[in-house]
UniProtKB/TrEMBL annotation:
Topology of this chain in the membrane: Multi-pass membrane protein
Signal peptide extent: none
InterPro entries (UniProt xref): NMN_transpt_PnuC
Recorded superkingdom: Bacteria
Organism: Arthrobacter ginkgonis
Main location: membrane
Location of this chain's protein in the cell: Membrane
Record-given protein name: Nicotinamide mononucleotide transporter
Alphabetized Pfam families for the sequence: NMN_transporter
Sequence intervals crossing the membrane: 20-39, 46-66, 109-128, 140-158, 164-181, 188-207
Keywords: Membrane, Transmembrane, Transmembrane helix
């Protein structure tokens, strides 16, 4: 069992570092599940994301340093916001929502960049105020936190029906894999990042305009015919 734990997480079981990596992996797995559910416009996705934050960032902060709450609480707020935002869409089936899918816009891009910077600053926390993050050999650390913040910001976009946010999540996962290859990444972390990329690409595909939706939109663009009815 210890050998399996080390193979998956690259740390010895029972250590503080090993527990943190395992909790982070559990949170990442739940986020991937949330992405798959979001691709189906399912309300349960946001509950999965709430569990992801609780199992990962929130539990790590409570166990190993309350300064982590500076980042964990906003992530929980994003999941709660997504649940609230989806509740505004008309229901479809048992847990589905008729989400209004929106295309790319400069406004959504600007908001995405602003949120990414804000979430990254919160993730850096004391490291930003003490200047530690500006020291040598911290490039991989702040890049990883930046890429994680892209996912959080993209979830806000998905909550509002922004389709291109899926590509931001896929790009974040791919870039994170490239960053980790510069070190000795845990097998579980790499596998979950691949899962994240695939889930995001599936979400991008699933949120495409369907032929019926396209025909309806085109029909609504013209005034009704005076010869009908």
């Amino acid at each position: 069992m210890d050998d399996l734990f080390y193979t998956l997480f690259g740390q010895a079981s029972g250590t503080a570092t090993g527990t943190q990596v395992a909790l982070y992996a559990a949170g990442s797995l739940l986020t991937c599940i949330a992405l798959l559910l979001l691709a189906r416009r399912n309300d349960l996705a946001w509950w999965a994301q709430i569990l992801a934050v609780f199992a990962g960032p929130l539990t790590i902060a409570l166990l190993y340093g309350y300064e982590g709450l500076i980042s964990a609480v906003p992530k929980m707020a994003v999941a709660a916001y997504g649940l609230w935002r989806f509740s505004k869409y008309p229901p479809v089936g048992k847990f589905g929502r008729e989400v209004e899918v929106r295309g790319f816009s400069l406004r959504s891009l600007a908001w995405g960049l602003i949120l990414t910077v804000a979430f990254t600053a919160l993730a850096l926390g004391p490291m930003l105020t003490t200047g530690f993050i500006f020291s040598d050999l911290t490039t991989a650390l702040w890049l990883s936190l930046l890429l994680e913040s892209v996912v959080v910001a993209a979830l806000v976009g998905i909550a509002n029906g922004v389709r291109w946010a899926w590509l931001a999540i896929a790009g974040s996962g791919a870039a994170y894999i490239a960053v980790l290859f510069g070190s000795n990444p845990a097998l579980a972390t790499l596998a979950l990042l691949v899962f994240q990329v695939l889930a995001a690409l599936y979400g991008w595909w699933a949120w495409r305009p369907l032929p019926a939706e396209t025909a309806t939109a085109e029909a609504e663009a013209y005034p009704p015919s005076p010869y009908k009815g």
